[in-house]
Write a structure and sequence with these properties.
The protein has 14 helices and 22 strands. The protein is of the alpha+beta class and about 500 residues long. The termini are far apart.
């Protein structure tokens, strides 16, 4: 073992047959005549050469993995080895099948312990992804079961192996390679005395599988976000503000961004002309612009081909003042979102009311969530959205001091980790000396990620320069989230003890 110089993984070819036979006879030494004949290997290589894999040590074959593609619904979970292989003729192979079915995998006993089997399983998984198949499925042997057969059923044996109370060289290895048990198969492989002719139907799901469709477009996985770090400044007219809005939309769309995010109350400069009024009256006068701003954003979303998250604006409804924003999709549709939690200062200065609206939003880039500023500091809200499939959380915010900003920032970073999603935050900078209660602003817009190997170690994808007007453009890969949900070092969503606690909206 110590003299091994080279390990190679490649596709099998017919010239390998004698070495393959020798390795197989050693691997199944307790099972006489248990080797594939040359004509059977030749058939597999003719119908599905990609599916036949060999691992070599110093140029000699010491193991292999043999596979076919099947249309799994024709067989279902109740099948025998003979049925799935077409009585060992492999006529069941279907180039248009949806499952990669493993018909054999072995390693020469002298070369076990080198994780060569893991290489073969990983290669099978890669092939499954490459061919866009739903899963890898096979019937796994349980060669140690005969030792315990008099004391327990196959189901009890499998559970004890899963619980690490017993060790089975085959099943334990398969479980450690991310395969899960579907069911117990009886009379699966005649002659397998060690397994008492039982087998464990094992499956590995391809998280990247996409159902074949006739639609022209598939939802893409890499999404480009554009964040506007908005400078508060005086505008002589509302048209001056619209000009600034369009400038940013134009700039971000030039980078072919899928989303553009504006900050909370970015339109506060419009209150300057009402500064002689009380603060509650001034913000209510600003609310008169909200529907017009929304309509302008809808047109910009269409003409610049970008989904716009409009930050937030005041809106009067039933004589109450709410903090609302709009998701303006590039196809011309729109939805509203509203701030649920209002700060003590917002109540005191403006008389803002909290809403009870919470939902995920469907977009051409998948499901997103939007929470305004203070709302991201309440972990229940993003968790509910994550349960509904949210992949990206957008947080428009407005903070005057670094204290307030830090609350938003660190809570947003926590939400990215605990909900296994991306979080984008955008705020305003500068000052408005002629607007009461809006004297100063502090912001550093950013995109946050979970903390695991595919992501930045500190969970910060990118961030703007503090207190400087600018745009921030960043790509996020949704496939990395799918990977994290299944294979992450920790899996905050999957590992929740919902048998101990739960969370739900009271209004449904």
């Amino acid at each position: 073992m110590t003299d091994i110089k080279n390990v190679e993984l490649r596709n099998l070819n017919i010239d390998d047959y004698e070495e393959l036979k020798a390795a197989m006879l050693k691997a199944y030494s307790n099972w006489q005549e248990s080797y594939w004949r040359e004509h059977e290997i030749r058939t597999l290589l003719n119908i599905f050469p990609m599916g036949q894999l060999a691992v070599l040590v110093d140029g000699v074959i010491v193991g292999c993995a043999l596979s076919i593609c099947v249309k799994y619904e024709l067989f279902g979970d109740e099948h025998s080895y003979k049925e799935i292989t077409g009585n060992y003729t492999f006529t069941t192979h279907n180039p248009r099948g949806d499952v990669l079915y493993g018909i054999d995998m072995f390693i020469h006993p002298e070369f076990r312990g080198l994780r060569l089997g893991r290489r073969l399983y990983d290669a099978r998984k890669e092939l499954c992804e490459q061919l866009n198949l739903k899963a890898v499925v096979f019937g796994g042997r349980i060669p140690e079961y005969h030792i315990h057969a008099s004391k327990m059923t196959p189901r009890e044996y499998i559970q004890k192996v899963k619980d690490k109370e017993l060790f089975d060289p085959t099943l334990t290895f398969q479980l450690s390679n991310d395969f899960h048990v579907k069911k117990v198969l009886t009379d699966y492989l005649p002659g397998d005395k060690e397994s008492k002719e039982y087998a464990v139907l094992m499956q590995w799901d391809n998280i990247y599988y996409t159902k074949k469709t006739k639609e022209l477009k598939q939802q893409k996985s890499v999404i480009r976000l554009g964040l506007v770090q908005w400078q508060m400044r005086h505008y002589a007219t509302s048209e001056d503000m619209y000009e600034q809005i369009e400038y940013f939309v134009d700039a971000v769309s030039a980078y072919k961004s899928d989303f553009i995010l504006f900050p909370e109350f970015f339109n506060a400069p419009l209150m300057a002309k009402y500064n002689h009024l009380s603060e509650p009256d001034a913000i209510r006068k600003m609310a008169e612009y909200t529907e017009d701003i929304r309509d302008r954003f809808i047109q910009l979303a269409i003409s610049y081909n970008v989904n716009i998250i409009t930050g937030s604006m005041p809106l009067i409804r039933d004589d109450k003042l709410f903090n609302v924003g709009y998701l303006c999709r590039r196809n011309g549709t729109f939805d509203s979102y509203e701030k649920i939690h209002v700060t003590p200062d917002e109540i005191k200065a403006w008389g803002l009311s909290g809403s009870n609206k919470l939902q995920v939003y469907e977009t051409d880039c998948g499901k997103i969530g939007i929470l305004i500023c203070y709302d991201v500091e309440f972990p229940e809200l993003p968790r509910i959205l994550a349960d509904q499939g949210m992949k990206i959380l957008f947080v428009p915010f407005l903070t005057d001091t670094q204290n307030g900003y830090s609350r938003v920032r660190y809570c947003a970073r926590a939400r990215a980790i605990e909900n296994e999603c991306f979080v984008a935050i955008a705020g305003s900078v500068g000052n408005l000396p002629k607007v009461h209660n809006m004297n100063i602003q502090y912001a550093q817009s950013a995109v946050f990620t979970p903390c695991d190997f595919p992501f930045p170690t500190n969970g910060v994808k990118t961030e703007a320069t503090p207190n400087t007007e600018m745009i921030l453009v960043s790509d996020v890969d949704l496939d990395l989230l799918s990977e994290l949900h299944t294979y992450g070092s920790v899996r905050n969503l999957k590992d929740r003890r919902t048998d101990v606690f739960d969370l739900k909206l009271k209004n449904g």
